Amino acid sequence: MAPTEPEIADSHTANSPFNIDATEHVAGENDGGYREPPTNGRESKGGWKPAFILLANQALATLAFFGVGVNLVLFLTRVLRQDVADAANNGLGMLSLTSWRYLIKPAGCGSEITKCREPSAVGVGVFYLSIYLVAFGYGGHQPTLATFGADQFDEKKKNQKQNRDAYFGYFYFALNVGCLFSNTVLVYFEDTGMWTLGFLISLGSAIIAFLLYLAGYKKYRYVKAYGNPVIRVVQVFVAAFKKCKVQASNEEQLYEVDGPESAIKGSRKIMHSNDFRFMDKAATITEKDRNDLKNHWRLCTITQVEEAKCVMRMLPVWLCTIIYSVVFTQMASLFVEQGDVMNNKVGKFHLPAATMSVFDICSVLLCTGLYRYVLIPLVAKLCGFPRGITELQRMGIGLIIGMLSMVAAGVTEFARLKQVIPGQKASSLSILWQIPQYVLVGASEVFMYVGQLEFFNGQAPDGIKSFGSSLCMASISLGNYVSSMLVYMVMAVTARGENPGWIPNDLNVGHMDRFFFLVAILAALDFVLYLLCARWYKNIQIEEEGDKKNLEDQENISIV
After folding, report:
1. Sheet holding 541-544, edge to edge
2. CA-to-CA distance for 185 and 355, rounded, in angstroms?
3. d(CA 220, CA 229)
4. What is the DSSP string of 7-53?
């Protein structure tokens, strides 16, 4: 479309008189939220010592969080007396540390032997309020801690960039160390009705984690905030919309500030890319822009436009990870329900259903070491790529393994139904049959979630690193909601007339195996879509010290 008369694009380049110095272009809080960092934007502290403090904090916080969450489904069914399908959905939130005061009556109830009284309305209200408060707190803690830990290493330095990449693996390792204690000792307490003691241990762990975090504040390396990235992205779309009738300028004519630094203080310049060309209109200088060069709702730099493009490119990949999170969610909900109706006697020892997630944790711990110290060196030697496989390849492998875990869960449930004993709750099939599905989920986590942390944090521009890390947590959260909707939809379709549905309160008359196979099919379809998105994805390209440099070779970032 030809440009209209009043808004003919100007041909001034980055060296034209209409370009201003980077310090003059920095926007205020009202129009972009940019902040003035120090000259270099960074402190000189950091390294592995403060990183280890943060890793210990992650382990303790995870112990507290999962210590109250791992048996949540059983708490909902035994204490709040919810149906299995409802419990599988509300297991998606986190249990309050205060709910025991109102709900666990008489003391010690909630085991398989002692039943609890009907919960009071006040107790249920406090329970659900606390669920969302705890989830809100942990939802802010985990992605922020992942980014803050990575900030302890300066990725501009080659050796520290390798340490930064290694940090994400250790971060997930620390998370599972915390889970190991919560899924063994705390699960035993809670499964036998000692909910109060389990909650108090979780509370103590949270307090220690907080004090440990405060103790290291002088050692941390702080990166100055770059303002609100959401506002900057919105500015690009608003500016492009205002110039919808303007023809986008060529790359050489788009607006950028002079000097090595971008207008977003502390953020490196990003090279121009040819996709999403309509967004380049935001960096196209028109006659009207000459009167107000500081109006970022009309004129944005190339770097700001490319920052928005990076978000647009990452979103399709991120959306493909949500189905995997549906797979992951089953481990804390339906896997537990499945194990609760299996033969959990191993010799003379009673094995609580939630304790089976220990095999997931051990799988994560083992696979993390194998990936870092065996797979990466082997692939690097064979293929010549020093980082082993790319993040996109890693995530794709994780999706495949996750799909296989659902197949394994379906096979286990099919076998369990074949050995149901009439008149009894539990099947004669040993709970140890669940080991393969837990091990496969653990292996998939190492590839998918660690790959997500590395990918979204590494591909996000300097100004939106926290946003990149938050995408991983958001994927898990949305996966929980999708799982909830899927359970409700399945029950709405299958539970008709005399048919109890696939996931009834009595699992022995249901077909939960079909639900697991359905999730496996969805994961397979999602993998096909993921392949297309991964092949389409183009990596971010940054400009350092006046030289244009790819963050990664394009051929290496592709999944195939």
Report:
1. 269-270, 541-544, 547-550
2. 9
3. 23
4. GPBP---TTSTT--BHHHH---TTTT------SSSB-S--SHHHHHH
Helices and strands counted in the chain (H then E): 20, 5
CA-based nearest residue to 434, from 509, 323, 352: 352
Coil, helix or strand for 105? coil
Q: What number of residues does the chain have? A: 560
Q: Tell me: the pLDDT tens digits for 310-321?
A: 889 999 999 999
Q: Identify the pLDDT of residue 119.
A: 63
Q: Which CATH class is domain 309-536?
A: mainly alpha
pLDDT (0 to 100) of residue 169: 81
Chain region(s) in the chain for CATH 1.20.1250.20: 309-536
Weakest mean pLDDT among 126-130, 247-251, 473-477, 479-483: 126-130
What pLDDT does residue 513 have? 93
Instruction: Answer yes or no: are the C-beta atoms of 227 and 35 closer than 8 Å.
Output: yes
Region at 120 (left for phi over 0; alpha for psi -120 to 50; beta for the rest): beta
CB 552 within 8 Å of CB 389: no
* CA–CA distance, 512 with 361 (Å, rounded to integer): 24
Tokens of 359: 């095999």
**Cβ burial, residue 12 (10 Å; 0-12/13-18/19+):** middle
Predicted structure pTM score: 0.75
CB proximity list for 234: less than 8 A, separation 6 or greater: none
